[in-house]
Amino acid sequence: MRISRGLSRRDFLKMSGAGLAGASLLGLAGCGEESSQGSSSGGMWKQYKGMTLNFISENTAPTSAIAANLKPFKDLTGIDVKISQLELGSLVQKVSLDVSSGDPTIHVIYADPYQVMAPFAAALADLNDFNEDDSLPSVPKGLGDFIPTQLAAAGRFDDPDTLYALPYDAPTMIWMYRQDLFDKYGDQMSQDLGFDPTPSEKITWAQYYDIAKWFNDNADEVEYGTGQQAKQYDSLMCDFSNVLWAYGGDYFDNGVQVGKTGTDEPGPAKLDEAKAVEAAEFYKKLNEISHPGSTSWDWTALDEAFRAGELAMVPNWHEFAAGVEDSKLGGKVGYERLPTGPARSASMWGGTGLGINGELEDDEQRAAWLFLVWATSPETQLSGLKSNVGGGTPTRQSVYELPEVKKAQHRPSDMPNILTYPAVSKAWEPENIGLRPKIEEWNECDTVIFTECSKMLAGDQSPEQAMKAAKEGFDQANGV
Question: Among 118, 267, 340, 459, which is least packed by CB within 10 angstroms?
Fold first, then answer.
């Protein structure tokens, strides 16, 4: 059950800190919006001049872009920012220790919805308090400028009114494919396969399999038609989830809401149901014709194999596009929403928001809010897109409406990640977005699903046995 609001966050964390500490071992230039920064010469932005903020983040593109150019924020506020970028598992451990220590030192938290927000929501400040405070700048263009599904998924947990984070990044899994090879072999594939293989919203996962197998048998330019991120790791959960949802399976009842807002009581898992088993059977079948390296690859290794020219197509995070376009494949790759299954298309969303450590003194929290407003502003997100260290993908609708961003969606582009926007925008539609369960026990459940799927891919158990074991593991983790 969620803790009572009658019990302070600090008291709760003192009592439960030991348990929280072990929650996981997994693994921009420009001012803010003109309306909120028109008074930047006054006291609103300068009221905490001389303070230093500590920002802890996963190793991500938007944070790298901000770290490379903090001067605009320092000029605006007089505040210094120290940034620590870590692997996600290490970040979770540090956040856990900090919020339960009684002497917090982290101000701004990269609040991964599943590994940070869900287990540590009691330690995060309600951002509505700052956004509605007339003595502080509010979110430029309002909360409504954030992409709605991302505001809910990255910003809220359990309570639809409390806001724990502002959407900061938005990595999403899409279909990347060798456009040059589809152009070369398209007619031949159409004759052999009996359908138009051109990547589009019409292509099903079954047809994706057929296309991959065709490349295995007929194209010398690549070793295999497809590869998967099927290492026994979080990447396997992400890869499998796309297929699970596409086949109509899910982790829990009311899965969309559990992924969007989150819950403390998800109920029994649904992984032993027929649709989930069917999805597992297909996923195993797909891996049997995929590059044999797939079971040792996470998303980074899969990207490296694709850029090396070993694969004709892959499902991977869209933000790898910047590296793809900068490789020998630059200009030769196309991007599309993931294929459809019997139920729908589903593209795993992996976005995260920025939150504030609610264990800090009030002035420290208020200073941290200044950074959140600036770091998630349209101007900073646009600057990140242009960064030579590679920025993230905007979470603001208004950024995509800018003429220069619209122009960059076509080659030649100085914002290569934006080349994926036509595909990503379709993946973000409510009926297509894939949201893993936002529950306090997700870290344990994540390990269960990728462990059981890994055994399945190794031939140690059948798809049906894997899904049954996964359901039992989920239910045990959730006390069902």
Answer: 459
